[in-house]
Amino acid sequence: MKIIGVTGTSGAGKTTLCEILNRQYGAYIIDADQIAKRLSKKGTMYLNAIVECFGDGILNQEGELRRKELANLIYNDEGKRSQLNGLTFMYVVQEIKEKIDALREDCIVIDAPLLFESKLDQICDFVIGVIAKEEEKIERICKRDGISKEMAKKRLSIQMEEKELSKKADYIIVNDGNVENLEKEIEKVWKERKE
User: Residue 34 in contact with residue 139, Cβ under 8 Å?
Assistant: First the structure.
């Protein structure tokens, strides 16, 4: 079993890269953000821990998490962001590790924006960092999440800088929006790491 970590800032194109790995190389994708969303549904231990930390003002009338409210809280407060990351690492990382233990796939990809911060890189055979131009990332975030350019810039400002990512990742792939180029870059990495 080969475990590949895929990481990068918001809007860099991690999902597109993972889709190519799945489609062309049969990799099984574990999406950390999707797991976090599922684990934060009403009545879960993760959501209860978040409410205990941030108060029930982050819940809607149905008792579901108001994600934008929580995002606004953590993007404006480093202490609160660290608290949420601590909870996320506790619940989400555990779930990811359990999922990997239960799988019998030849290749598993962990798609995680906080791969290094959560220490998930330590269980990966290698890590691919995805980078893109700032304007492209901002445009993608605004389109995907329906937020302003200012909010998109704020999100990016608190994430790992690409210079730091370049030092930590085994491979850096530039996503310029051209899927064909992305496929070629992935193919190079795949050939080099093929055992």
Answer: no
